[in-house]
Design goal:
Layout: E1 7-15, H1 21-32, E2 41-47, H2 54-57, E3 66-70, H3 81-85, E4 92-97, H4 107-121, E5 132-135, E6 137-138, E7 151-152, E8 157-160, H5 161-166, H6 177-185, E9 191-194, H7 207-212
Parallel strand pairs: 1-2, 1-4, 2-3, 5-9
Antiparallel strand pairs: 4-8, 5-8, 6-7
């Protein structure tokens, strides 16, 4: 497979009718790396009401086609996750979302978001013999939200599209399904963990965490 394969994108945005700092930050970074994705692009925008989408569209790449979905306040992006996977085929797929929309502005979160795009998208992983790749891996359970043996904290990761789709099953809906998903589908040995990753439950929201890495 190598890295010269179609590179798909699944991307989720919540839009509550107001552009926030984190819409601007995430979507500027998405635009910076947009050319990486030469395969199928699934970009879903979840809304609560009939907002004008023009302010949001102005932040997206001009050739970005969006799908409008109803926001689910209980399950969030997870409710649309498996449907999105079923829309991509072949190569490798990057899953990400417009992170931090419901959060206040924190410098640690800014750094985390910047690193999630930069480190995942500037060097494309070879998933010939693996299922997932991402940064900020926590190699331990983090119950109750993620009881699996590992996860990619922040839910930004690449996956081998066809291998993962071959393992898809029926899952109990949970708000944290996107974060739990790699640990449900694969073993640690089938995954790549880029810097930074840890066997400790690091707080990536904290600026001090990044200063110590």
């Amino acid at each position: 497979m190598g890295v010269n394969v179609p590179k798909n994108l699944i991307y989720f945005i919540y839009y509550g009718g107001k552009i926030t700092h984190y819409h601007k930050l995430n979507l500027s970074l998405l635009g910076k790396y947009w050319s990486v994705f030469n395969g199928i692009k699934v970009v879903k925008v979840a809304v609560d009401s009939n907002y004008s989408l023009e302010p949001l569209k102005s932040l997206l790449p001009k050739d970005c086609q969006i799908e409008i979905v109803a926001n689910n306040r209980v399950y969030g992006e997870s409710i649309h996750f498996i449907d999105s996977i079923n829309k991509v085929n072949g190569g490798i797929t990057f899953y990400a979302h417009c992170k931090g929309i419901s959060r206040p502005i924190w410098r640690g979160l800014d750094i985390w978001i910047e690193q999630s795009y930069k480190r995942n998208l500037e060097t494309i992983p070879d998933l010939s013999s693996k299922l997932f790749s991402g940064i900020c891996g926590k190699l331990l359970p983090c119950p109750p939200y993620v009881p699996q043996a590992f996860h990619y904290s922040g839910s930004f990761y690449w996956f081998n599209t066809d291998k993962v789709k071959a393992r898809l099953g029926k899952y109990e809906m949970d708000r944290y399904l996107t974060e739990r998903f790699p640990g449900i589908i694969a073993n640690k040995s089938e995954c790549l963990f880029g810097y930074p990753y840890s066997e400790k439950n690091l707080n990536f929201y904290d600026e001090k965490t990044w200063a110590r890495l």
